[in-house]
Amino acid sequence: MGPWSPDWRPDLTGRRLLAIHAARRGALVAAAVFAVGVAIASMLAPEVATDQPASRIAAAVVIAVGSMPGLGLLGAALTSAALDDRATAVVAAIAIGIAAPTAAVASAMIGVFVIVGFVAGVGEAAEMAGLTLQAGVRAAIRIAPLLAVLSIGWVAILRRLVGQLAA
Q1: Which residues contact 18 (CB under 8 A, 6 or more apart)?
Q2: What is the pLDDT of residues 144-158, one digit of tens each?
Q3: 140 pLDDT band (50/70/90 cuts)?
Q4: Greatest CA span in the chain, whole angstroms?
Q5: What confidence category does residue 135 fall into, taking pLDDT thresholds of 50, 70 and 90?
Q6: Is the pLDDT reported for residue 79 higher than 50?
Q7: Half-sphere exposure of 158 (CA within 13 A, CB side)
Q8: Does the pTM of the predicted model rise above 0.90?
C-alpha cells in the first residue's frame, strides 16, 4: 500500500522508516557475511582448480560478488524476523542458513547465464548455468558447518547494529 492507495495514511510514528532502514542494513550485512562463505566455498571447490593462487582468488571474488544480490535480498526479507524476540531470531538464523546457498547459487547462475549468453550464445549459457548449479550445490555441502556459524553471526551482527524494532 502506498500513497496512491485511497486508504494510505502517513506513518507518524516513524516505525515504517525504521523498518526500511533495518531491511537495508540486513541486506548489506547478509551480502557481506555470506559472500565470505561463498568465497571460501569457491576456493575449496575443485571446479575452480588452477595452479595459480591468484587465479583461484580472483575466481572466488568474482563468484562471491555475483552471489551478493541474492544474498542481499534474502537478508532484507529475513531482517524483521531476526530483530524480533530470541525464538524468532533463532528461526531466522535457521532459515537464512538453509536458504543462503540457494540464493547465492541462483544469483551466480543468473550472472553466468547473462555474461556467457552475450559472449557465446544461449545454448552455451544454459550449459554453463547448469554447471554453476552443480558446483554450487557441491560447494554448499562442503561448507555446511560454516553456514551455521555465518547464520548465527548474521543475526548477532544485525541485532547489535540495528537493535530491536519491536519496542
Answers
A1: 165
A2: 899 999 999 999 999
A3: confident
A4: 63
A5: confident
A6: yes
A7: 38
A8: no
Q: Give the 3-state secondary structure of the chain.
A: CCCCCCCCCCCCCCHHHHHHHHHHHHHHHHHHHHHHHHHHHHHHCHHHCCCCHHHHHHHHHHHHHHHHHHHHHHHHHHHHHHCCCHHHHHHHHHHHHHHHHHHHHHHHHHHHHHHHHHHHCHHHHHHHHHHHHHHHHHHHHHCHHHHHHHHHHHHHHHHHHHCCCCC
User: CB of 82 within 8 A of CB of 155?
Assistant: yes
Q: Can you give the residue ranges of every domain in the chain?
A: 15-162
- Pick from 103, 102, 89: which is nearest to 152 by CA? 89
The Cβ of residue 123 has, within 10 Å, a number of other Cβ atoms equal to: 10
| Residue-level pLDDT at 13 | 82
pLDDT in the model for residue 167 = 44
CA separation for the pair 164, 160 (Å, rounded): 9
Residue given cell 535457521 in the structure block: 94
Looking at residue 139, its amino acid is A
User: d(Cα 97, Cα 75) in Å, to the nearest integer?
Assistant: 11
